[in-house]
UniProtKB/TrEMBL annotation:
This is Sorting nexin-17. One of its GO terms (molecular function) is phosphatidylinositol binding. Residues 381-410 are annotated as: Disordered. Residues 94-185 form the Ras-associating domain. GO terms for cellular component: cytoplasmic vesicle membrane; early endosome. Residues 1-88 form the PX domain. Keywords: Cytoplasm, Cytoplasmic vesicle, Endosome, Lipid-binding, Membrane, Protein transport, Transport.
Length: 450
């Protein structure tokens, strides 16, 4: 059997024959010219070298399928991974109570099936909170790890190919929780959410929590004003004031390492406002701050390396064994592109943040409506359980203008995140062009500038 990992954690275990069955089903539905080539069957028993070769081919195959917007978003592919996840963790389908946290620590208990997918659980939480249907898509479920000071370290946004109950219980660690949080970056969308009482309460709770944990910077005078608004229970005014503060709406990541401006610098990365913000501690102990705009990133990639020497092959992979890196190519000045690398266990989460910022920019640029985009996705989730029809809605656009078709094609390419294993070096030259995640919001830069 082959292990499939998500963020270095075992998702499921599958046999070659099961993957072959998935391949044949995808070919039947989408045609042989759309589905990538599958590693061939062998008549004789495989040698150890052939086993490793097949594993590499299967890894490439799974990544190619996942990165294709049609195949990776298909119900066939996602339900295969959900079913395999449930079978691997040996969790029978039954009714359970799942605890989902809100930003203020409040617990929402929902009765779900262990086999319910991410969107079903999100619907159940929204229903329990009385959050209206057209606001559900503004929020997402995140897998987090609770730190000793009560803050949260974000592991990943729960994806459509996983079962939240199985994902959290299979970690066998009470520090891992599921939290509900807003999942958009542009604070102008706060207006839509604040129109409804429940949306306003959720946004308010998240803002208060982010201030308490030091994610949003507040000086003494601002703190006094915020406290006064809190005492008056002026939630809208509180959020309006918070919107003007530094790092409002940012996700803060755990301290990690970067090679910018020089190798081995300690850095705290925050994602928000269409940028990655760096607070870097230089070897001289000086703290420097700077931002990398997503529109100036030409492409990025996530790479993973697993040291082969750590422990016997049968031992379970420890957290330290999988080394994840996010690298992006950045337009530093008119004619200078440079690679910047972040080494962090949260590299995939960082990549997902970049991707969703780009998706949002593309929708805005086309004049599309984020509300309609989300609503369609929510309706898709409601219909999906009744039929086998895939109702995946990638971030396509609602604008009726002439540019819609090419824009939609571009934005559909944004759904891939490349994860590739590298055993030793991870310099830009070692990675083929297919491993890059091109950024179509990299704009306004002519060929002569490059």
């Amino acid at each position: 059997a082959y292990n499939i990992h998500v963020n270095g954690v075992l998702h499921c275990r599958v046999r070659y024959s099961q993957l072959l069955g998935l391949h044949e089903q995808l070919r039947k539905e989408y045609g042989a010219n759309v589905v990538p080539a599958f590693p061939p069957k062998k008549i004789f028993t495989l040698t150890p070298a052939e086993v490793e070769q097949r594993r590499e081919q299967l890894e490439k195959y799974m990544q190619a399928v996942r990165q294709d917007p049609t195949l990776g978003g298909s119900e066939t592919f996602n339900s295969f991974l959900r079913k395999a996840q449930q079978e691997t963790q040996q969790i029978p389908t039954e009714e359970v109570v799942l605890e989902v946290l809100l930003s203020n620590g409040q617990k929402v208990k929902v009765t779900i099936l262990t086999s319910d997918q991410t969107e079903d659980v999100l619907e159940a939480v929204a229903s329990k909170l009385d959050l209206p249907d057209d606001l559900v898509g503004y929020f997402s479920l995140f897998l987090v790890r609770e730190t000793k000071d009560g803050a949260f370290s974000f592991v990943r946004k729960l994806q459509e190919f996983e079962l939240p109950y199985v994902s959290v219980t299979s970690l066998h660690n009470p520090e891992f929780r599921i939290i509900l949080r807003k999942s958009y970056w542009d604070s102008s969308y706060d207006d839509d959410v604040m129109e409804h009482r429940v949306g306003l309460n959720l946004l308010y709770a998240q803002t208060v929590s982010d201030i308490e944990h030091g994610w949003i910077l507040v000086n003494k005078e601002q703190h006094r004003q915020l406290k006064s608004l809190q005492e008056k229970v002026s939630k809208k005014e509180f959020i309006r004031l918070a919107q003007t503060l530094k790092y409002y709406g940012y996700l803060k990541f755990d301290p990690c390492i970067t090679d910018f401006p020089e190798k081995g610098c300690h850095v705290i990365v925050s994602a928000g406002n269409n940028e990655l913000n760096f607070q870097v501690r230089l070897p001289s102990e000086q703290i420097k701050e700077g931002s990398f705009k997503v529109t100036r990133m030409r492409c990025w990639r996530v790479t993973s390396s697993v040291p082969m020497s750590n422990g016997p092959s049968g031992s379970s992979p420890g957290k330290s064994e999988v080394k994840l890196e996010l690298a992006f190519e950045y337009l530093m000045s008119k004619d200078r592109l440079q690679w910047v690398t972040i080494t962090s266990p949260q590299a995939i989460m960082l990549s997902i943040c970049l991707q969703s910022m780009v998706d949002e920019l593309m929708v805005k640029k086309s004049g599309g409506s984020i509300r309609k985009m989300f609503r369609r996705r929510v309706n898709g989730a409601l219909r999906r359980s009744d039929s086998q029809q895939a109702v995946k809605s990638p971030p396509l656009l609602d604008s009726p203008d002439a540019s819609r078709e090419p824009m939609a094609k571009l934005s559909s390419k944004l759904t891939s995140v490349s994860l590739r294993g590298i055993s030793h070096s991870s310099s830009a030259n070692d990675v083929g062009a297919n491993d890059f995640h091109g950024n179509y919001a990299f704009e306004g830069i002519g060929d002569e500038d490059l």
